[in-house]
Amino acid sequence: DTGVSQNPRHKITKRGQNVTFRCDPISEHNRLYWYRQTLGQGPEFLTYFQNEAQLEKSRLLSDRFSAERPKGSFSTLEIQRTEQGDSAMYLCASSLAMDRGNIQYFGAGTRLSVL
Amino acid sequence: DQQVKQNSPSLSVQEGRISILNCDYTNSMFDYFLWYKKYPAEGPTFLISISSIKDKNEDGRFTVFLNKSAKHLSLHIVPSQPGDSAVYFCAAGDYGQNFVFGPGTRLSVLP
To answer: Are the Cβ atoms of B98 and A33 closer than 8 angstroms?
Structure first.
């Protein structure tokens, strides 16, 4: 296993369209996180899963956003009715909950551009 | 309200010299701190961490110092190398919970 994998790397869409991103975590990691990063800012937490359970959601995660991790392995993040303000880098990270300090390992991200 | 601040957006250092990156936090509940490094077109990469029970942690050329009373931490890189040029993010949280990231400092190490 080479790390956290995210697909696609880039996504260009028109306003109002739906988009879905996929994240494959490090295989033995039971926690999976989604972050959003805009220019000049650090990653902002969106949501996280422990196994298949979604344990926390940020207020940044509007009702147009939904995330799933159906079998506790890969996860998808869907954005419905995209808006130009959704343009950002979407980062996924995974960690091992038993790992002291909960170090998160990041994927390369999916860059979303909403036209 | 930014809970984690990195007040220097950028820093330039000569190769071989020391780089010092600073980070301040406001939440006294934070007890675990990490530094990540990010190259263009890549995700953040974990660099070094420190828990609140320590005031220093060292890993090769990288040392993190924590001053809990001042709610301040710093990352020292000695000696700095051109390959260290990247954006450095400070992150803070408590064990088992989510981390809050600072806005990052872009380090340029000049040959």
So the answer is: yes
**B100/A45 CB distance under 8 A:** yes
Among all chains, which residue has been given the structure tokens 């390959």?
Answer: B83
**A contact test, residue of B59, B98, B100, B101 with most A CBs within 10 A:** B98
Q: For the segment B22-72, what is each residue's pLDDT rounded down to a tens digit?
A: 999 999 989 899 999 999 989 999 999 999 999 999 999 999 999 999 999
Which candidate, B71, B53, B73, places its Cα nearest to that of B63?
B73
Q: How far apart are CA A109 and CA A111, in angstroms?
A: 6
Question: Tokens representing B43?
Answer: 């995700």
Determine the residue of chain B that is closest to A6 in CA distance: B43
Structure tokens that stand for B109 in this block:
């190490």
Q: Which residues of A touch B9 (CB under 8 A)?
A: 40
Q: First vs last Cα of chain A: how many Å apart?
A: 35
Name the β-bridge partners of A24. A5
**Which of A80, A75, A42 shows the shortest CA–CA distance to A61?**
A80
Angle ∠(A87,A90,A93) on CA atoms, nearest 5: 170
pLDDT digits (tens, 9 = 90+) for A13-28: 999 999 999 999 999 8
Which residues share a beta bridge with B73?
B23, B66
